[in-house]
Automatic annotation (TrEMBL):
Protein's gene: thiE
Protein name: Thiamine-phosphate synthase
Membership in a protein family: Belongs to the thiamine-phosphate synthase family.
Example of a GO biological process term: thiamine biosynthetic process
Gene3D superfamilies: Aldolase class I
Organism: Polynucleobacter wuianus
Amino acid sequence: MSLIRDLADQIIQAHRSNDLCIPIPAFSINSPPPRIDNEAAADHYELAGALAAIEMGFIESDAKVLGKAWSRMTLHDGGFDPFKWPSRPEQFDLLPWTRNMNPNAFKECPKRLGLYGVMPDADWVKRMVDAEIPTVQLRFKSEDRYKIRRQIKESVKAVESSKTLLFINDYWEEAIDAEAYGVHLGQEDLETADLEKIRGAGLRLGLSTHGYSELVIADRFCPSYIAMGAIFPTNLKKMPTAPQGLGRLYQYAKLMSHYPLVAIGGIDQDSIHAVSKSGVGSVAVVRAITQAKDPKAAVKHLQELMQA
Ligand SMILES: Cc1ncc(COP(=O)(O)OP(=O)(O)O)c(N)n1
Ligand SMILES: Cc1nc(C(=O)O)sc1CCOP(=O)(O)O
Ligand SMILES: [Mg+2]
């Protein structure tokens, strides 16, 4: 057996039972089998870490990031220990400075945003303010700019003179015009949004991530918070990657603990306590509130479970 195969097997064996493994995604023309690049790798540990990650069900881009982190951890520790797992920012090339020292950092938001309701329209935002939820997002999807502006204005008005913090999903220009507290963007929005404008206007920025490689990308933008999903299956939208599960969430939360963190995706009253225990300061939900018999009571109950 080759050395790399042996090291990879040791990593897989050591972490088999801690919920980091998920089934390997099915390969197709659009999603071809992963390539682990022998030539670019620094050493056996990088190759073994990447190979183990692929077999634990990580997508190719995450496996590459993990391989590098395994190599750096092993070099730094002066030896290979399969029972460890990379979880230090420098192993992942995260920014070496704190937000205070970073001129490009987005405006700070509370480390613990608490229960975070992601709501489909302004009427739901109003209901959340009435329920005294700490953080709410307007996730209104439309092509109609007039409707979008109206929904955002109504939402901003709804949180006025309340303690609820309002983030606007997607429509950053309208959010700036309406002087919202912050915007939430997905990774694909980073290619088109004018981040300078959002930062210059003093709005907070939340960014979505779905694994190690997206966490590393998000860190480059020094956003106000980082959202990590989908933790569990959700039918609210088509997800490009499999649910991450609690094991991975716990590792992501450890690695990114210097950021305000939000967990999202399929979280309900049965799982919210375990999700909070990961160290994230906020848990975002849609259906756990919108499909509850009594949404206001659900907000209260979910907050109690987070703190229990
Ligand atoms: C708190 C939070 N996390 C993640 C998302 C997803 O945002 P995005 O990737 O932009 O996808 P859409 O919500 O636009 O479908 C979110 N909205 N909120
Ligand atoms: C809007 C959204 N974004 C996700 C992500 O992982 O980026 S998961 C998600 C839906 C969350 O809805 P529910 O709480 O009903 O599962
Ligand atoms: Mg979006």
